Amino acid sequence: MESEEIKIKNFLTRVSDIVTRLKALGHDQFANRINNLEANIRDFSVHTIKSGLVGITSSGKSSVMNILLGTGTKILKEQSKATTNMLVFCSRSKEPQLEIIYEDGRSIKKTGNDCLGESIWKFTSEDENPGNKYSVKYLKIGLPTFVIDEDLELADTPGLDAYGLKEHEDLTLREFLPQADLIIYLSSIRSPMKEADRKILNKVMDADQRIVFVQTCKSAVVESGFASENSEESIDKRLDKYKEEFEKLISPYSRLKDAPIVQVETMSANRYFKDGDKEAWAESGFEELVHVIKSVTKQLQYEYTIRNLKKIVDSVNALITLLISAVKEEADKKNSIEHLMKTLEKLKKYNERILNTKNQVVSIWKKKIDPAGMFAEFQHELSRTYSYRYEFNPKHDTEFIVKADAISEKMHSIKASMLDNLDNARDKFKEYFDDVGLDVRRTDIQSGSVKSFYLPNVQKRSVSGKSLLASGKDLTVEYIDKTKFIEELKASIEMFLGPLAGHLDWWDKTITFSFVEPLSKKVAASVDDIKNIEKGGDYNEEQYKRLSAFSKELHYSVKEVSALCDMEFIEQKFPVYGKKITFKREKTGFINMFLQLSSRYYEALFHNYYIRKLSGFSGNKHKTVVLIDQNYESQINFINKLLRLDAETLDHVRALKRPYVINPQSADALAESLSVEGEFSDSLTFYVLGNDDASIEAAKSHKLFERADVLQLIIDDLHRVASALVDIVERNRFFDNIVKRQDKLLLAYPGGAYFQKGRLHILVDEAISEMNKIFDAPSVQWFIYEGYEVRYSYFYDIVSQAAANNLQPEDCMRQWKDLGIPLDEPFTEDILLEQFAEIT
Predict the structure, then answer these.
(1) N or C: which end of the chain has fewer CB within 10 A?
(2) pLDDT digits over 193-226, tens only?
(3) Beta carbons within 8 Å of 638's beta carbon, 6+ residues apart
């Protein structure tokens, strides 16, 4: 690559020298082409690669960015729930810099060591800047400690698949992705690939972008070794297994099969910043990640160098054509003009199509999203359900609500249709550019304030009067305040359509900048070439020789680099990190080693806690549990742990298709069932349901929700709580049934190790508290475990009582000891006291 860069540098020097001598001749006929070539040479420079951390909400993007910023502090807020609500661009600079860009075009710039003295969380955090109330478009942070090179700009992006925050996804997928060169895609190491993951991968494939995969929360695999059924398996083997499983998940995407996969964890990286422990830095995986990013960045820069070289070569060839044509005989000039005319016609055709399509799309959608016209239509539709004189008649309420819900669906449909229409039009324009060999110019991002639509709250009023019946009793009737609803509907429509109109205006300007202007310039240059060839020139023999000599010099110069311009032959090399790091578990003393060997003790703790939890729901000797989860593997893992299945029985369970029943009673009549001999064969029955039609029909026909003692909902993604909420509220088809029977609900989370040690308080304060909000029950019951490690549940039980009983950390610690729960890694007395203090 270095020898090629030297060749390119020599080429630029020679061409600049030839152009300088050609200009000295003073022929105006070549002035435009020379100016264009000189402009391309001036613009030939090192390209700043735009990259971004992308992934489902709470996959660790802000935590990773804080490490890469290199200060050892939390410049960006880190939370288990949705955090970042706007794009934050980070890069290396000579001194600390902060720039806040607002939606109205204003910007505030700060430099110096104190520029980040005031927390930027007030702008970037969804908690402190809900709905972007400060109207910030994006932030830029520059630090000399940034661990990546100066020629890369890295963005922290809003998370995908966040419950109630669809606009975050719009900002990332529709506005950031088209501008990015490199996507660094993050996912929690043990989390399954979800629909949101596939959506982003499809977008990356469509855009032909480079991607690096990062599996975060590497330490969760380390901690999961404690009291685990595979504790004998080495940590390195488990890490390799997770990487291999991820490789299988992305294998359908052929272009991504060799993409780098790096596993990282921030705890060791923070230890490096705190103590200067270089071994911890290597162990954290960030040394490998930085190496991979730098390698990919260097290759991308080379590709941009070749693209810029191609522009210069095209400009040189256009100048050569003009030089040769200027001194040709009339017959030869005619052939040159005919060739140029064919190219010009294609350019004009595409230019006209892009311009007409752009204007047509903008015109159509401006009419469709006009707030006044849309409100008038909906007002008329709702008003037809009742007369203002008899608004109080409750008979009209049901029809009114149905029409109001239809309005909500229509508004969401309008938004989806418009955004898809804009995306499809842009993709078509890119096809035109590919056909004529033009690159799409990148533009600035939009504010990303495309919002969700919410209907006004339905408010009820009451009216009293005498009954017209013989009794003449006083009656009070409640009815929907329809007039107030319609008045507030107008404000809801304006709030929703305003940002959409802003997005449409941004798209209009983007298409003009990225497509219309470059193509118009190309058309103008071709027209100018044809005119100059037709005009010709009156050259003497000496001038003729000079022009011919210049064209030959330029031709030979181009010939030396033309082979480099074929982008298809640039080999995409995926970086290889040769340094193998063995992940070491910290020494934890004899007591902890003894407990690890005594796995039966942990099993007993697991079983005893679970049975005691079930007893809190029902006093029945034989209990029935409906086990609900979209992820079949999680259900099998739980049944395997609880019932201690042998290999043969486990195979039988895996062969069953949901819905099925484990340990059926005589009245059970599900198509598939299995009896498991053991301590729970006469006391526990499990109905295992999926998220499909067959499970719904089985639950309904056998009245499972009515008969069950416990409804156990397994939550696989609590550490990505905003995405987990989407899974439950929007994707789980049993959600309405679950809400109606919250008194039977047991929420189970099998990934406690994500919240080990110093993150225990986050499990309670952020993850569980967010999840509990969607249920109205006074207290939601939880079963939190990791392998056979169930002390996460004990921790939650104790701190749940702390606030109500005004307990201090020492009181919580006393309760822990009174229960006889072991105090060893990762639940030492010091860690527990610290975490109790965080909550109480």
Answers:
(1) N
(2) 777 677 777 776 666 678 899 998 877 776 555 4
(3) 627, 714, 748, 750
The span from the CA of 644 to the CA of 647, in Å, is 10
Measure the N-to-C terminal CA separation of the chain; round to a whole number of Å. Answer: 59
Torsion sign across C-alpha atoms 379, 384, 389, 392: negative
Measured in whole angstroms, the distance separating CA 452 from the mean position of its chain's CA atoms is: 17
State which H helix or E strand residue 259 sits in. Answer: none
**Cβ neighbours of residue 178 under 8 Å, at least 6 residues apart?**
207, 426, 442
Where do the H-state alpha helices sit in 512-598?
Answer: 517-535, 541-561, 589-597
Q: At 91, phi and psi to the nearest 5? A: -155, 175
The two three-digit tokens of residue 357, written as one number? 């399509």
pLDDT digits (tens, 9 = 90+) for 132-170: 778 888 889 999 999 998 889 998 887 776 555 555 566
Paired tokens of 497: 């359509």
Which of 237, 160, 238 has the alpha carbon at shortest distance from 203? 160
Of 279, 170, 263, nearest to 222 by C-alpha is 263
Helix (H, G, I), strand (E, B) or coil at 825: coil
Which DSSP helix (H) or strand (E) runs through 373? Answer: helix 371-383
Report d(CA 695, CA 700) in Å as an integer.
9
Q: Which residues of 114-141 are buried (b: 16+ CB within 10 A; e: fewer)?
A: ebbeeebbebbbbeebeebeeebbbbbb
Q: Rounded CA gap, 139 and 614, in Å?
A: 50
Q: How many CA atoms lie within 13 A of 618 on its CB side?
A: 18
Angular region, 477: left φ>0, alpha ψ -120 to 50, beta rest: beta
Alpha-carbon distance of 520 to 352, in angstroms, equals 10
Distance CA 570, CA 305 (A): 12
Residue 660, pLDDT > 90, answer yes
Question: How many CB atoms are closer than 10 A to CB 549?
Answer: 13
pTM of the model: 0.71
Q: Where are the beta strands (DSSP E) in 79-230?
A: 87-92, 97-102, 107-111, 136-143, 152-156, 182-188, 210-216
How many helices (H) and strands (E) the chain has is answered by 30, 18
CA 347 vs CA 321, 435, 442, 680: distances in Å: 18, 10, 20, 76
**580 Cβ contact partners less than 8 Å away, ≥ 6 residues apart:** none
CB-based contact 602:608 (threshold 8 Å): no
Distance of CA 262 to the CA centre of its chain: 18
Beta bridge partners of 183: 52, 211
CA–CA distances in Å: residue 567 to residues 212, 254, 308, 316:
21, 19, 11, 18
Whether the bond into 826 is cis, omega within 30 of 0: yes
DSSP H/E element including 699: helix 693-701
Q: How far apart are CA 264 and CA 289, in angstroms?
A: 8
281: its two tokens = 């830095």
Residue 410 has φ and ψ, to the nearest 5°, of -65, -40
Nearest to 520, CA basis, from 433, 424, 445, 446: 433
Decide: helix, strand or coil at residue 564: helix
The answer to whether 483 and 391 have CB atoms below 8 angstroms apart is yes
The amino acid that residue 818 corresponds to is: D
